[in-house]
Design a protein that fits this description.
Number of strands: 11
Distance between the termini: 40 Å
Largest sheet: 8 strands, mixed
Strand order of the largest sheet: 3-2-1-4-9-6-10-5
Radius of gyration: 18 Å
Structural class: alpha/beta
Shape: globular
Strand content: 15-25%
Length: 253
């Protein structure tokens, strides 16, 4: 049985406590650690507090969690979601199958309440990535500190595809989003103000090599599709969404 490291940044103490409690309730029978990256204290069984004296956004926090982790598998999580019971059960087999199909591999946790997936430059990427340690090492690391609060997951996806691997949804590993109040949302200051810089960083890294056929419109470059467009859990249509939908309408999708 692999050891599973759960990367969990938070700036919201009560939400973090509730998320940790939910992870415990849903993860029976597994060897796991929760890397709680936060500027406040937290203790508990399976919890490793990764102190963050000066928060720099979720991408840097996930990077800190990776550096402190010991697991064979690492899972990205957030304090505004809760896992469904048994969510860790499918991971070992799914990751082994994914890596056998094409290495490196990044799986994505499923959100049944959110019936869409993300694709960047026409390639599926996992909103909540799950990878083995060896796949992470093969792409040069976990979340990149090049970003503050956005594009960490598309960047992982792009690095996997660039390395000759692939990404796919792990449909049986399910998580559920939780409501966040305006007060709770305000406790995360990086989300609103860092988007333009993070977007510019992402475009600088990838648009020259992967942007052919994609207009300079982030809604076309990074697009959410209905789950029905997945094939074998993934999506590899290297064209802008407007062109893809035209192909589907013409019967060629």
């Amino acid at each position: 049985m692999p050891t599973i490291s759960i990367s969990l940044p938070s700036l919201r103490p009560q939400m973090l406590v509730e998320t940790v409690r939910a992870i415990h309730a849903a993860s029976a029978g597994h060897d796991y650690e929760i890397l709680a990256v936060c500027p406040f204290g937290i203790e508990g069984t399976h919890v490793v507090h990764v102190a963050e004296s000066e928060p720099r956004g979720n991408c840097a926090a996930h990077a800190l969690a990776w550096e402190a982790s010991r697991g064979d598998v690492i899972v990205a999580f957030s304090d505004d979601h809760r896992p469904e019971p048994g969510w860790l059960d499918p991971l070992a087999a799914a990751l082994a199958a994914g890596e056998a199909r094409g290495f490196p591999f990044a799986g994505g946790l499923a959100r049944p309440a959110v019936p869409w997936f993300g694709a960047v430059y026409g390639l599926y990427y996992p909103y909540f990535p799950v990878m083995t340690r060896r796949s992470v090492l093969a792409i040069g690391g976990w979340f990149s500190r090049d970003y503050t609060a956005h594009f960490g997951d598309p960047d992982i996806g792009m690095r996997v595809w660039r390395a000759g691997g692939h990404c796919a949804l792990i449909a049986d590993s399910r998580i559920v989003p939780q409501p966040v109040s305006a007060e709770q949302d305000a406790a995360v200051p990086f989300k609103s103000r860092s988007f333009p810089r993070d977007m510019a960083t992402f475009l600088t890294k990838y648009h020259r090599d992967h942007g052919a056929g994609f207009p300079p419109d982030m809604g076309q470059i990074n697009h959410d599709y209905d789950l029905k467009h997945l094939t074998d859990g993934t999506f590899t249509r290297r064209c802008a969404p407007r062109d893809y939908y035209a192909q589907v309408a013409a019967g060629g999708g």
